[in-house]
Amino acid sequence: MSEITLNVLDVERSLHARVHGAAGERVVAALAADPETIEELAVAVGRFLCGSEDGDFFDGWHDGVCHEPWDAGIVFVDLAGRLVASRSSYSSFSHRGTVAWHDGDADGGLMLPYHLSGDWEFSDDPDTFDLQSARRREERLSVAPLDARAVLYDRAPEFIAREVHARQTELGDLSDDARYELAREIHARWLLTQREDLGGLCPRDLMIDDRHEHIERDHQNQQHHWSFVGQAPPGIPRESAAYRFGGFGTHEIVLYYDLVRELIRKCIGRLVDSAVTEADLPGEAEHLQQLRQEWMHGPEYEELQGRSPASVIDRERRRLPECVSGEQAMVDPDCPLCQMMADEQFGPMFWGLDGCNMDDDFAFSFHRTREEWEKEQREYEEMNRRFEEEWKRDQDFINGRAAAQEFLGVDEGQSSVWTSSFSDEQATDAMPAGQAVPLMLFGIGAHLGELGEDLKSTEDGAERARLLRSNFAELRHAIDDRNPWTAESTVASFSERLDELATDRPKLALKCTDLERQLDRLLERCRDLQDFDDQIPF
């Protein structure tokens, strides 16, 4: 028993069909895209079913509602009432879970996660679906959707102009730090001021709410899809209610913070240099509106790597991750681990903003309540206190030791020559070769990064570090290709360069010797890899 009667309804029409229970699971999982219409739901099903991105999933379905169960049961999905009512021996539904990806021919065993907004209601009583649907629709449709962005973006300039004007007489006497504090004060007041055009809520209430958490989870699941399916997932249509009236994601919150702060700084700068009367405020607000448009659509924002703030916000509202190349994602091109992670074999990379540079006040935090924020502040203070105690204890220990040369000269089993990197050889020794080799490579990359830092302060150090990184890259590719001849040749060249470095830089000799030892261990473990010794050199 695996088929069900599946009903799908929106505010204007309804469809039904007898389908496999797995199709019902994909339809429910697609509700993560917050569809309001059957057409939007059809597009969202493409997240879990290859070939349905064009919105043809419901082609051939019958009009109307069918209350007759079939085979494994019956499922109702009411988009207008945000209600799922079901009785099925095949599936059970909830706000989060996983469903199997279908590649168009069959399920391939790949499970994709989903997360539904908290305002979806689940019922195991399909017999009373009509009554439940009527109640839910009355509740939801009685509240008109609020276009919060029309207020947060369009009304902010006039608020800023008015607030800065109220302090105009003292602006010229303020230091740079005092101006910064004034900007922060005005910014916080804007976010925390209740407004009639927001239904009595303040801007922050509409940015940091349940929808923000849902959007973040859905955005992460879309990244998961892209990584494991190997293709971009379908996004949300711009004409959809989810796009026009949906909540704020982290990218938009961070960029909105920067936008408001920039407008406040610009306004302070203008009012310092020119006298503005109250009658001039509409003109000042209009000027800030123009600056807002220029800032939103300009590519000069350094952290966005050529993107405009408007384009980043648009993609987030469409639930489309920002995919970048490994080269673009690389934080430090001289870091062996960065080079390793940028390899295409690891799949797509994603770029994002996290708000780490925002002021550490409740108004600018991601906490829903001030109590949550204060609790975190206390936890930070306790963590910092413990860190200071441990740091002082460690310093006392280090200061009581002998000279660094003596410390590094102890037996190998007693201490590591590496100070800022670590690899657990005992752990990798106990692992199968397939698991151990990637971790051993990662450990060697970490040690090579530390060695590169040591070389920065030496003559011709940059070139030596570059050659060692080149050896490391060749070794990784040889192991990936299961080519023992290239791997052994690369290790020989690698070791020769390390020997030369040890001779020329005696202070680095211990590290060079240990790195050679680890390369030999790696080569030994590689011989245990399947197909590694099957290559023929001619």
Q: What is the number of E strands? A: 10
As for the number of domains, it is: 4
- State the shape: flat
Count the DSSP helices: 22
Taking the sheet with the most strands, its summary is:
6 strands, mixed
- Roughly what is the average pLDDT, rounded to an integer? 90
- Straight-line distance between termini: 58 Å
Explain what the structure shows:
- Helices cover 52% and strands 10% of the residues.
- It is an alpha+beta fold.
- The protein folds into four domains: 3-141, no CATH class; 148-209 and 247-351, no CATH class; 370-400; 425-526, no CATH class.
- A hairpin with a 4-residue loop joins strand 1 (3-9) and strand 2 (14-20).
- It is flat, with a radius of gyration of 30 Å.
- The model is unreliable at 401-405 and 407-414 (pLDDT under 50).
What's a quick, concise take on this entry?
This protein is α+β, with helices and mostly antiparallel strands. 52% of the residues lie in helices and 10% in strands.
Overview features:
538 residues; alpha+beta; 6-stranded mixed β-sheet; two-stranded antiparallel sheet; 52% helix; 10% strand
Spell out the blueprint of helices and strands:
Layout: E1 3-9, E2 14-20, H1 21-29, H2 38-44, E3 62-63, E4 73-78, E5 83-88, E6 96-102, E7 107-115, E8 121-123, H3 129-141, H4 148-154, H5 156-166, H6 168-171, H7 176-192, H8 203-207, H9 210-229, H10 241-245, H11 250-273, H12 281-297, H13 309-317, E9 322-324, H14 326-329, H15 336-341, E10 349-351, H16 370-399, H17 404-408, H18 425-429, H19 433-455, H20 461-480, H21 484-504, H22 509-526
